[in-house]
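Internal QA ticket QA-208
Title: Verify multi-chain structure generation after dependency bump
Assignee: T.L.

Test input:
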Amino acid sequence: MTKKEKTMNVTTINNKPNSRRNFFKKTAVYSMSAIAASSIVPISKLNADEIEITQKAPWGTKLGDLVDKYAYGIPSPYEHNNVRRVHDLLSSGDRYATVSMTPHHLQEGIITPNGLFFNRSHGGTAHVDPEKFRLMLHGLLEKPLVLTLKQLKRYPSISRIYFIECPANGSTGWRGPQFNNLQFVKGMTSCAEWTGVRLKTVLDDLGLSPNAKWMLAEGSDNSEMARTIPIEKVLDDAMLVWGQNGEPLRPEQGYPVRLLLPGWEGNLNVKWLKRLEFSDKPWHTKEETSKYTMLQANGKGINYFWPMEVNSIITSPCPEVPWTDLEVGDKIEISGLAWSGRGTITTVDISLDGGNNWVEASLKGLILPKAWTRFSYIFKWDGKTKVLLSRAIDDSGHIQPSIDKLIENVGVEGIYHRNPIVGWEVKSNGEVNNVHVRS
Amino acid sequence: MFMLDLKKIIISCGIISALIISSSFAQTQTNLKINVDGAVIYPHKDGKYTSYLLNEQSTNGFNNHGRTPTLNEIKAWNIDVMPDGTGLPEGEGSVEAGDELYSAQCAMCHGEFGTGGKGYPTLSGGQGSLKNQLLKEGDEPPFRTIGSYWPYASTLYWYIQSAMPFANPKSLSNDETYALVAYLLSINDIEIDGVELDDEYVLNKEKFLKIKMPNVDGFYPVDPSRSDLKEVRPPLAQGNRCMSDCDAPEPVHIAAEITGFDPVISTSKKLIIKESETTITQGEKIYNDSCMACHANEALGAPVLGDKDIWREITSKGIDSVYLNGINGINAMPPKGGNMDLSEVQMKEVIDYMVLKSK
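Actual output:
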């Protein structure tokens, strides 16, 4: 028998070698009296040995990589499937003006690694030379201002954890479930710690006119992405950010500087920022008329629709990470993410029976405004088909609606801001499928 | 006003649901201060912003690091065009000239006469389709084009000027942009001041300011008066926190599953051997496994891989003597560097590799 065959046999015989339950199952073969008589049955007699333990691991018997092998570290090569993915259906004709999705099923905690942050642009990723970067603030200001990157970074900084979400996140579900995975159902959102200066801090010195009701934010990229922002948001929590999870912004996120409007549609967080103009009137840019407006069933479009609604999704289990390896009676944690652009998550309810009965899940970790929030519910798997749902509530009073409640109000052609409750059907064999509960 | 407009829609969908939405949202409202978007405004108070601590020293005066832009600099960047025509430059262009430009630079993506192509936007047609809802197979969806959807022509001018053609943006002159706008209005059957835009029609700033787009009143809530922002925005739809016996229907399954993700969806952790890794030479592999520990590090006294001077000296007596020294050991190096598993052939392979790497 070759070494490999031995390994395979061992794993076939003993597919759960470390399980306490298997130990007890096998222990039960020996009679109660045997246990009583001989006190403890040696484990080695009950389970086949695993070569992972009995043989020396190859990585322990030679030198590892040199510490400077990667000047900038990369993930384990085994994690090659923890990657962003794209689909041609979601593109505007090519892979410049499209979106790549975050793999939520492989994410931990509330911070998205910079290399996995979802990436949406309208003309490809621009590479701005930081030495040539200039930011101009002008319009209804007494003192217009030009800043280099170095000058901008001299302002006192703050670091805040905020999610960003494309308003089209979940948009493939308007007419029914279509994608059988978490990544494409909700992958257009990510969360990071952003470092920069509060925009109000910069404006405090510039003599903002009381007539300035709107701010234009414009990017320097191919698409000259531009959006109009009401002054109330500018003076509340808007930031000019240059840092993302402890390092300079990634090019895909607008290096060297982007606007950050916590909780608002991703596209408003203008990347590769170059200009902020203040006016008494809104601009009606291309991205707030031809796009990012929400056509209603009555034929009218909502324009300037800013905050992302309260939302939640169960990330474990999900179609990519099913419960097919569970055995009846196993304890298991249902966990997921909740977020709201209108405030802070206060409550997440979970249903195991497709929405008939609900129980309040535990929130865990940091609970921050306009940031991803983790929720958790532990239960014992009974091997019976289930439909898992999650329903989030925020401190502005917004409760995540059902699918049909939203359709009743806005129809199915709005494209954006689709936030109803998501359903995962867990079959008795542990497989997980995307389903819609049309209440 | 936004609240009223939204209610109108809701009422058109069902009065009962409207009552439920507004009353249930009102019930769950808190005492927190709310911004125009309906989101909570958290105070900066007592050195804290929610859970974040603040530095409360004065932040004034940092603008001294910057400077005032010159008028020319502002002019160079301030090229946006607003709905009332603010920012629109002088210039002119005919429908015919626009047609030629369109065929040469736009039709490959947007199709002949703006009829669309691949995934790129359709630019013409669709008027009267905005109330369409694609609910079941065979239904027509709404078509959002320049003619059917866009409220202002200023957007059209600014869009083309700043971001088109897609692969070569900011390359069109003002006259060319006027010509393209004229052509795109003409294929959407939009008239200016009652005049049809035929081939000879020349669009200029004065005529541009008279354009009224068909769907100008098709949006809410924002108008320049900001009357809309006097009320806080409600969510699009408010959920109902039923906890038991909620009478949920049977779930709807995927009818036609979409596949074709790139890369393919998988959670496998099996290593993928890349081609570049398989072409690694035998000598390099042996070096990495057995020799690198000493020969990559000057401090250990062994000739360092890549040190041309040392290796020139080592090879000066011919390659065979290098093989011999390697196999039998030399100075502090034991025979085969202590790797007695290595065959003589393997020793030669790794020495060849090290010599090559140090040339």
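Spot checks passed. The longest strand of chain B covers residues 92-94.
Status: verified.
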